[in-house]
Amino acid sequence: MSKEAFGIDIGGSGIKGAPVNLSKGRLATDRLRIPTPQPSTPDAVAETVSQLLTAFQVSPELPVGVTFPAVIQQGVAKTAANVDKSWIGTDVNALLSEKTGHDVFVVNDADAAGIAEMKFGAGKNRRGVVTIVTLGTGIGTAVFSDGKLVPNTELGHLPLHGDAAERYCADSARDREELGWEEWAGRLQEYFDMLEFLTNPDLIIIGGGVSKKHEKYLPLLNTRAEIVPAKLRNEAGIIGAAQLARKEAKRKAKLAEKAEKKQG
Fold this sequence. Notes:
- There is one protein chain.
- This protein is α/β, with parallel strands linked by helices.
- It has helices at residues 42-55, 92-100, 109-120, 165-169, 171-176, 181-199, 236-263; strands spanning 4-10, 14-21, 26-27, 32-35, 64-68, 72-73, 76-77, 104-108, 129-135, 139-145, 148-150, 159-160, 163-164, 203-207, 226-229.
- Strand 2 (14-21) and strand 3 form a beta hairpin.
- Helix 1 packs across helix 2 and helix 3 (109-120) crosses helix 7.
- The longest helix is centred in the C-terminal third of the chain and has 28 residues, at 236-263.
């Protein structure tokens, strides 16, 4: 099977995609970004995903992985924090597969970013508890214990100041309230104090687009755990989604081969 797959990262403000070289853990070409439709209903987002695949002329044989900002269980969205509430209960795998004509595998966005960072990035070969925190429209989290993912943690929704923490200290809150770096770091400090109390990580990896400006706020934070910027940064979701899609395609191929042997 090819060492390539196609990854798509669905976010609150943009939908990004590119083919991924999984031998090297990086994008095979420049990514394409299309603004997330507003309202971000299932049909509108599915149409945008289809446009991305068409723009790259993706072969039907190439595995397609898609991140989604929600708890995903067996391909079904159980929450919808930063997209239209009509996603709740939607079989995202089935919808995107039907709309695009590709076999699509969907995963929680922070989990995908975390998987990529653990294999190719700042978490490579790290043991103990590693927590990846993506700062963007919301706050996504992925928690690993000795390299094993605890899926769908969604710790960006921990209560802080009477609301979900991401409303108070996501990167979107910094933009919305025009916070300076020091003031925003103070909010992040509150969040990381709570996160460390609950999960006691050995390493915290900061991802999302704002990770490329890490020198402006990470030195202002005081955490017990080592805290570092993500190496794959805003491409981690695309790479992780592609990685998981290829793994799922291999699993399905093996199942089909076994079924064929039984029939024979």
